[in-house]
Amino acid sequence: MLELISAILAKLSMIFILHVKGAGAFPRPLSADEEKELLIKSSHGDIGARNKLTEHNLRLVAHIVKKYYGTGADPDDLVSIGTIGLIKAINTFNYEKNIRLSSYASRCIENEILMYFRSARKNALDVSMNEEIDHDTDGNALTLSDVLAAEDSIAEELDLKIKTEKLPRYIKECLTPREALIIRLRYGLNGIKALTQREVAAKLKISRSYVSRIEKKALLKLRRRYEKA
């Protein structure tokens, strides 16, 4: 990890200079044999080989970054982020697999840049959600998140009210007389005091386990009826 951080810091400094000078300052691409030799050394922890692989693939970073120049992001930031993706690619590349480093690195560079944009959008949304949009009657600041939270609470209360109003009809539609009675006794419906399973069992002169089975079956029927609705 320390080696990776050191390589990143060193390469970001170099990349910035090369980017300012222009594409003509980029080192030439490596031949297939040169690249393979450096990849083998890099896989054995040779930092110099990793740095050289990074340096000779900077042109790839510049090529990919150009696609994002019209997004409003700072070009130098994009180059730095793309270079981090390149370094990650070199550090994780398996030269024994039948794939070119440039193909693998391109994907890593793109992913790093896209993660940057996703993070930027998330941060922008977080800021807007907590930005003041109004004040309440007492002069306290209101944010969008406050308003949405209030709306969610109202929606939940309304949903509960609607479901409660439908419950007597669903009990009548779905449950047998005994199931309906046990649900009313267990949950105190129609003004009845809610009872424990043991109290319901004693009242109906049946076992508590039987009450439990009937209650579970009845609740499952009601749940399915709500889901269907």
Structural overview:
This protein has 229 residues and is mostly helical. A two-stranded antiparallel sheet has the order 1-2. The protein contains ten helices and two strands.
Indicate the radius of gyration in whole angstroms.
Answer: 33 Å
Q: Tell me which oligomeric state these chains represent.
A: single chain
Across the major sheet, the strand order is 1-2
Structure class: mainly alpha
Distance between the termini: 55 Å
Number of strands: 2
Q: Assign an overall shape.
A: elongated
Summarize the structure.
The protein is mostly helical and about 230 residues long. The protein is built from 10 helices and 2 strands. Helix 5 crosses helix 6 and helix 7 crosses helix 10.
Write a concise keyword list for the protein shown above.
10 helices, 229 residues, mainly alpha
Task: Chart the SSEs and their pairings.
Elements: H1 2-21, H2 32-43, H3 47-55, H4 58-65, H5 75-92, H6 101-129, E1 132-135, E2 141-143, H7 144-174, H8 177-187, H9 197-204, H10 208-228
Antiparallel strand pairs: 1-2
